[in-house]
Amino acid sequence: xxxxxxxxxxxxxxxxxxxxxxxxxxxxxxxxxxxxxxxxxxxxxxxxxxxxxxxxxxxxxxxxxxxxxxxxxxxxxxxxxxxxxxxxxxxxxxxxxxxxxxxxxxxxxxxxxxxxxxxxxxxxxxxxxxxxxxxxxxxxxxxxxxxxxxxxxxxxxxxxxxxxxxxxxxxxxxxxxxxxxxxxxxxxxxxxxxxxxxxxxxxxxxxxxxxxxxxxxxxxxxxxxxxxxxxxxxxxxxxxxxxxxxxxxxxxxxxxxxxxxxxxxxxxxxxxxxxxxxxxxxxxxxxxxxxxxxxxxxxxxxxxxxxxxxxxxxxxxxxxxxxxxxxxxxxxxxxxxxxxxxxxxxxxxxxxxxxxxxxxxxxxxxxxxxxxxxxxxxxxxxxxxxxxxxxxxxxxxxxxxxxxxxxxxxxxxxxxxxxxxxxxxxxxxxxxxxxxxxxxxxxx
Length: 444
Prior knowledge:
444 residues, 43% helix
């Protein structure tokens, strides 16, 4: 056991946090650590280097997570981007961390360099949404938005999702090449079209939204991310003003004019923040649900054959197993500790950046038998691919709807579907937030 005190500025996904670290934990034999240079605070606690622990970590992080989970439910780690964070693993620990009020998503509660987010700080319209608020603000914002995500409204989108899917597959199959990039042909344009239509974003602007979203989710640099945020906010400010003057049937127009029983409504900045959240989360998750789901089926021909033989009986369960086995979100969006938090025998210091490994929680043998086996007949209920607690994904029903329709239609129209590239050659989305491939070459 050892004890160390450090004043540092760990950074994850563009966020710098000042933290005074006081930690006590056991070293586990065999876990590589990042050594702090003698010239830079020698009392710093070592961080487990995820890529040293598993050189293939980005493509397949699951063995690394399992190795960490066998030692303890939380670890001080160095992520592939070189930043130090506290990583929570295991189903029970992850569920508990997701609902712990001391581990916050509200940046206003921590001593953070908020402008380093690249979005203008905590009061930027891009950040005034419910994912970055705790109760009571979160409760208020979610109440105002949730009414527009009713089961009836989502179910009513089914026919339109089916038409978009059919049109995209028509185009994919039309050239007679017999091969395509499934992400570009179906996985990306389907949810992007759906969420843009839902919000009332003109078709001509959707490629621009795609570029902004890619930069924000997987930044190429601080300046580029800042520009993407600024351009998106400026565009949405104009768009919400137009919806206020000329209402239509879109979700954004509905949010502009929503007033609850007490007369409360979203402010202008809250509308922009909600639109940013819906546009990014509303398609990134589904892109990777479709991509990861198809990859899993192609890698397990027996499961693909089962699903083809009984889509009516197995499709819903298959989608849940895809979410559990290789879900679209690897770690929940970063959180910060407002005070020291004990997880297992480890104290996470106040002001620390915390990543909660949803991917590992759903591969925990304490919750799912033979968790590394892909089995579409498994009862996968209880997975936390869409989170848990008050920040559970509001758009989960829409993602499931899109996933079911896309997968069923693809398998019906492409009976000979097969991979057209080696798995090891696929390029992965960088970072530890989203889990998915940039391209998915297939043939039929």
